[in-house]
Amino acid sequence: GAGVSQSPSNKVTEKGKDVELRCDPISGHTALYWYRQSLGQGLEFLIYFQGNSAPDKSGLPSDRFSAERTGGSVSTLTIQRTQQEDSAVYLCASSRGQGNEQFFGPGTRLTVL
Amino acid sequence: GIQVEQSPPDLILQEGANSTLRCNFSDSVNNLQWFHQNPWGQLINLFYIPSGTKQNGRLSATTVATERYSLLYISSSQTTDSGVYFCAVYTGGFKTIFGAGTRLFVKA
Predict the structure, then answer these.
(1) Which of A22, A94, B38, B75 has the most CB within a 10 Å radius?
(2) What pLDDT is stored for residue A15 in this prediction?
């Protein structure tokens, strides 16, 4: 596709369940980023991938959060044992390389009941 | 870590007015981007501007890297300009840091 795509667009889950969020970057973009945006707030950086590797995972809020990227393309962000404070919009971006212009997907709105 | 501050936090304009949004950062940056988040939540790229001046229609931006600030100018504002404007900086590490944003409302 022409832009970054994310799925699902909305996810409602019950506290304690696991969720998987998917990001499909722009073709040819080697860098991929995950952010979280709580209601009315700015963007919180979560993790960055260069190719399939994530050199710094310190932005992940807790050990319930993990992310992977395979084949240098699609990435999944997994949240285990979801909590109500995980409710937010999760945004993905990609760029040609580290430090280049980032392009964002439409986000996944996660609601934990 | 680097601090990114945007001002003003909120801005209300009458349609047709001009405005200047500011982004200050506390350390050297490798690049800086301005985004517009529309009312539907989509982040739209405005400028990729680590230094210098760029213009795109009614919008222009200037980054003075040596003085650690960037300005976004909106001229002849329209109601469709409403939303939140973010600046984001990359310092060469693994993180991109966003400011808290300026929330703009343009009245018809």
Answers:
(1) A94
(2) 97
